[in-house]
Write a structure and sequence with these properties.
4-stranded antiparallel β-sheet; alpha+beta; 11 strands
């Protein structure tokens, strides 16, 4: 952390009200944050009068925006965007600012020893809400709705809203975790939260919004669809859908990869029951465990024996190869000795 005063603009998350040129009424959360890290804040003059006090910082922010955010990057999630920004930050360490002789990383290496260490205890930056679960098994957080398990309908839960995710607790137990929705009026549903209700009402499964979101997120794969269609053809619409829901319930104890492998094997064998999928998924998991336990065989293609290495250093042998032709006469003599004597033949 920086030592001494740190200059800040009059950001709304920190400043509730400007009293005079330098006096501010601070946000309570911001006061707790800077007190935790020992930050001594100094605020810039509002408006154009304070533009010269932060021109360098705003100039570098503008450079970053123009070089990385124009055109606006297309990403599938906020986590993907954060990973891209982190990669750009690492690349920016090799950049020289203006006519300075050294890159950013070397200047920071000089500055690092002058910084004070971070506190040992973390600071909780998330905002805590106490919310009641509605009859749709959802909670409303800042105009957006998120699902929780259906068993919590009517109960009050705690929701911790972070910059990138929302974590929901029932008492001390975490019951749901969602990527945070940025736009207003959106809904994020987890299909797993509704399975206990859907297994009793399988007719509601095909049109469920949670199912469509699971498909879009890649959690409900074409393999699931193929097994589901085959199960409906074999057992009927209701029982086939219920069998699929029972398979999805296994996902709480079996990894997604092994469950999909079990569906593939069961579909190939024509085994269209949840028990068959569980058996095949267990086989896939055990096969992976065995593969992890078996040590990899060493690569012997680059191994040279000590004898071969010594022979390679000897001069070439130009002598002719030995011949055993002289021993053939001994073989002929033995053949004559073993052959029975014929009358009139000379010994």
């Amino acid at each position: 952390m920086p030592t001494g005063k740190v200059r800040y603009d009059n950001l709304r998350s920190a400043v509730s009200r400007v009293l005079s040129s330098r006096s501010r009424v601070e946000n309570e959360r911001w006061t707790a944050f800077r007190s935790h890290f020992g930050i001594d804040a100094a605020y810039c003059l509002p408006g154009i009068e304070g533009a010269h006090e932060k021109g360098g910082v705003e100039g570098q922010i503008g450079w970053f925006r123009r070089n990385h955010m124009v055109p606006v990057p297309e990403v599938a999630s906020l986590a993907e965007l954060n990973a891209m920004i982190e990669r750009w930050d690492e690349e920016d360490e090799r950049r020289r600012i203006g006519s300075r002789p050294r890159p950013v990383s070397e200047y920071f290496a000089v500055e690092r020893p002058l910084l004070q260490p971070l506190p040992d205890d973390p600071f909780e930056t998330g905002r805590l809400f106490s919310l009641r679960v509605d009859r749709f098994s959802q909670i409303s957080v800042r105009t957006n709705r998120y699902s929780v398990p259906v068993r919590l309908i009517g109960r009050t839960v705690r929701a911790m809203l972070h910059a990138s995710e929302l974590v929901v607790y029932d008492g001390q137990l975490e019951v749901a975790r969602h990527e945070r929705l940025i736009a207003k009026g959106q809904t994020r549903l987890d299909l797993d939260h509704y399975l206990e209700a859907l297994v009793r009402k399988p007719g509601a499964f095909p049109g469920a919004t949670a199912l469509e979101q699971a498909r879009s997120a890649g959690k409900f794969t074409p393999v699931h669809d193929a097994w589901w269609q085959a199960a409906k053809a074999a057992h009927g619409e209701r029982d086939g859908t219920r069998a699929l829901i029972e398979v999805l319930l296994m996902g709480r104890h079996v990894s997604h990869e092994h469950l999909v492998a079990g569906l593939v094997s069961a579909l190939r064998a024509g085994a269209l029951t949840a028990d068959a999928v569980a058996l095949e998924a267990r086989k896939a998991a055990e096969a992976d465990e065995v593969a992890d336990l078996v040590p990899a065989k060493p690569d012997r293609t680059n191994v040279t024996s000590l004898t071969e290495r010594r022979l390679a250093q000897l001069p070439p042998d130009t002598r002719p190869l030995p011949s055993v032709a002289a021993y053939d006469q001994l073989l002929r003599a033995r053949q004559r000795a073993d052959r029975p004597a014929i009358q009139g033949e000379m010994p």
